[in-house]
Amino acid sequence: DAPAVVLGRRSDVLAWNRTGRALFAGHLDPHIPDQPDQRPNTARLVFLDAHTRDLYDVDWPKKARDAVGKLRLAVGQHPDDPRLAALIGELAMKSVEFATMWSEHRVRKWDLATYRMHHPLVGRMQLNLQTVNVPQEGGQRIVVATADAGTTSAAALCLLARAGVPTAVPTVRQAGRTEAPGSPWDGADSRSR
Q1: Could you report how far apart the first and last alpha carbons of the chain are, in Å?
Q2: What is the pLDDT of residues 145-171, one digit of tens each?
């Protein structure tokens, strides 16, 4: 299974396959995309979630700029979207890095990007993230992660697909702090117990 995530126009996670969750958000409840008012947002994760920042490792600045550029593109396409405006306001208030990048006014539409990642279960990987727009679906897109065949990254991705996601992680940092087991950010999947 190649990791795949379906995103809405605001970069909200609408769905993911098991490997997509394992790669991008193994610390989150697997069923959270089914709850519209609690869906993870990839821009919010990039700027406010320590797990995501650690995942993108040395390429975090590149991923952050790409996330800001995607939001700029969404604002241009949907200038009257109050939820999009609220998301941008929240990120600007909570992240100096976001506010700085937002003020640069860069728009970014990418169909393919390569990132060096450091996953807590399978280690370092270089992955290609391909974005496919879903016609007629109001800005929805599917992001699929792949690795070049025969590389250690491909082997790590295969291992991640077979291993799945642990049902509990001892502690997870979130936005610069450590959460104790049992908190909403401890990586526990209460539905699988």
Answers
A1: 24
A2: 999 999 999 999 999 998 865 544 444
CA distance 37 to 162: 31
Q: Which helix (H) or strand (E) holds 177?
A: strand 177-179
Q: How far apart are CA 92 and CA 52, in angstroms?
A: 18
CA dist 119 and 84 (Å) reads 29
Distance in angstroms (rounded) separating the CA atoms of residues 147 and 2: 9
Q: 105: how many CB neighbours lie within 10 A of its CB?
A: 9
**Locus of tokens 């993230």:** 129
Question: Bridge-partner residues for 68, per DSSP?
Answer: none
* Prediction pTM value: 0.81
More confident of the two residues 161 and 193:
161
Structural domains of the chain, ranges and CATH numbers in brackets: 4-169 (3.30.450.180)
Q: Tokens representing 36?
A: 């519209």
Q: Are 63 and 127 in contact (CB under 8 A)?
A: no
Would you list the DSSP string of 62-99?
A: HHHHHHHHHHHHHHHH-TT-HHHHHHHHHHHHH-HHHH
Contact between 68 and 89 under an 8 Å Cβ cutoff? The reply is no
